[in-house]
Design brief:
The protein is mainly β and 102 residues long. It contains two helices and seven strands. Strands 1-2-7-3-4-5-6 form a seven-stranded mixed beta sheet. It starts with a strand and ends with a helix. The N terminus and C terminus are likely disordered.
């Protein structure tokens, strides 16, 4: 399921996965993603083999299609996250604003 929310002139897309879609991501990490503490988003096309990116504070982890880490990068500025992923079968905040804070 995909939900889109307008933010100024940009549109943020929320995609929903099942926990089994990314079997190599630990359940505790999936809960941090669903609670809005960490962010899972679509990897940019120039990210090579990466399918997803996981943002944890100022660190980005590139992940393959199963959620296995490929590389780690420390970032100085905010990365562009226009398509976030959440897990349907894990509890998440009811407020959409919790999902938009970085």
């Amino acid at each position: 399921m995909i939900k889109s929310v307008g933010i100024g002139r940009e549109t943020m897309r929320f995609n929903h996965l099942h926990t089994d879609d990314l079997p190599n991501i630990d359940m505790s990490i999936k809960k941090c993603i669903n609670s809005g503490q960490w962010f899972l988003f679509k990897a940019p096309s120039e990210a090579g083999d990466a399918v997803y990116m996981l943002k944890v504070d100022n660190t980005l982890y590139s992940l393959d299609q199963f959620g296995s880490p490929l590389s780690e990068v420390t970032i100085a500025s905010d990365s562009i996250m226009d398509e976030l992923f959440y897990f349907d079968d894990i509890d998440s905040p009811k407020s959409l604003s919790n999902q938009l804070t970085a």
